[in-house]
């Protein structure tokens, strides 16, 4: 992760992936989806890891 790039919220990832926020929560509960970490009560995503996860999906298809 870039030293100055902020972590993404669930809403940020939802907009980036074009999926509902509810889907991201379901993926986390199932252990699916992009890597996520919990900071207090909030879920946060490393943008580089989200992009890598998307790249891995397209390579596997």
What's this, in brief?
The chain has 61 residues and is mostly helical. It contains 3 helices and 2 strands, in the order ααββα. It has a two-stranded antiparallel sheet.
Task: Write out key terms for the chains shown.
61 residues, mainly alpha, two-stranded antiparallel sheet, 3 helices, 2 strands, globular, Helix-turn-helix domain-containing protein, WH-like_DNA-bd_sf
Break the fold down into its secondary structure elements and pairings.
Elements: H1 10-17, H2 21-30, E1 37-39, E2 42-44, H3 47-60
Antiparallel strand pairs: 1-2
Helix pairs in contact: 1-2
Organism: Prauserella cavernicola
Pfam families: HTH_17 (PF12728)
Protein name: Helix-turn-helix domain-containing protein
């Amino acid at each position: 992760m870039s030293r100055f790039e902020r972590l993404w919220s669930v809403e940020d990832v939802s907009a980036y992936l074009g999926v509902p926020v509810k889907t991201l929560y379901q993926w986390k509960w199932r252990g699916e989806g992009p890597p996520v970490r919990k900071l207090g009560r909030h879920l946060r995503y490393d943008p580089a890891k989200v992009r890598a996860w998307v790249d891995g999906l397209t390579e596997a298809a």
